[in-house]
Amino acid sequence: MNASMIGVAACLVLSALFSSVETAFTSLTVFQIESLKRKGRGGVIVERLARKPDELISTILIGNNVVNLTASALSTRWALERWGDWSIGLMTGILTLVILIFGEVTPKRIAIAHNEGVAAALAPLLLVCTWLFKPLVIVVNFISSLVTRLFGDSRPDSMSMETMVQMMSIAEHMGIIDYAKSRMVKNVFRLGATTVQAVMTHRMDVFSLDAATSAEDACRQASSAAFSRVPVFEGESENIVGLVSIRDAVVEVLAGNGSRPLSEIMGEPIFVLPNKSMGDLFALFKKRRETFAVVIDEYGGLAGIVTMRDIVEEIVGEIYEDSGEESRERIEKRPDGSYKVAGDAPLAVLAEISGGELPSLPYVQTVAGYVAWSLDRIPVRGDFTETPLGSFTVTTVDANRVDSAVYRPTRKG
Fold this sequence. Notes:
By secondary structure, this protein is of the alpha+beta class. 54% of the residues lie in helices and 15% in strands. It is built from 16 helices and twelve strands. It has a five-stranded antiparallel beta sheet. The longest helix has 31 residues, at 53-83. It starts with a helix and ends with a strand. The mean pLDDT is 81.
């Protein structure tokens, strides 16, 4: 066989290797790279190369172009020697087709299906190429960076929470993870962005007791309201001074001290501000070994209360007990594509449904607040408003607040 054709065949093999390793590395996720790193030496080299993506891509492209151009030159020379000038066009077409099939498409399809194996197997070869092509890579990257600066460098510094949520949505769509688990993981990611204000029980709905109330009366009132821990106020209802466990009150009653006031058996509550993130509150609860916090506004008045149960419900959904409470999901999809949403549903979930951006409104975290802000007045039943996230039709109002509404998202794209 002619030496030129042997050279062409060798160049085709190298072209296939460069094409496959390019696809293998660009399709690897950070999780796959870490997994390969733990498996052995090949994985260590993969992780080392992946740390410098600009150098990696430049090396692969330089190698691929060199072998493809060499194959073209050798095949052209062979065709000229054998058939003359008229065969150059024919040989160019044949070589282009061969490179496309055997040097590009086929190797890349194989690499997509076996990206970890291809990357680990070819990583040593690629490492050698990075050393051989180092001077050329430096020149190419320098010129490329100068051109890139003309268009600005918009590459993100790190993976954002939105990216992680999108990855979960893709995994859910592909059937890798079911809806319930995907929803819980997304909610965990959102804890850092969700504030206490979005999930707290508002002060209008808070059950509290006067510090002068006796333990016996406290047990009676709390049992009828089905509460186990109750904020204690002194003077005005917004002046929270303590927190009493009804269990402690029952102990006092059983010990014959039913007339003892709550001021003598109450404990000191945890006070937090409405803008504290749920993630930080969860860490605080774990550190203090508490499950109950009093939310105060910027003036020191009562804003509401928040519990560990509120945090858990943000992750797993509503939790129902044998207390006669009506089962109610905060967001329910209806057959016509709209949603029935509760007034206390967080805006972050609606932003995900619509594909829009979460409104930058520090004091608006829930549907009720968002609808009131959009209407610029106290909502009434039947009100309709259009917003960047979609339209809302108020269905029920309780104490001047939206209790439920019908939401029709504005789909993006």
